[in-house]
Amino acid sequence: MESVSLDNPFFDELAKYPVRFSTPVFFGDSPFSSYSASLRNGTGSLMKLGDKYLGVTCEHVLREYRRIKEAQTQTVFHFGRAAINPEEHLISENRVYDLAVFDLTPFVGEVPDFTAAKFVEPTTWPPRDVSREDVICLGGFPGIWREQINLGHLRFCSFSSGAGQVHAVGEHHLMTRVEVEKCVTQFNNGVVLGSLGGLSGGPVFVWRKESILAAELVGFISEYQECYDLMRVTSANLIRENGTLV
Question: Which CATH class is domain 9-238?
Answer without folding.
Answer: mainly beta
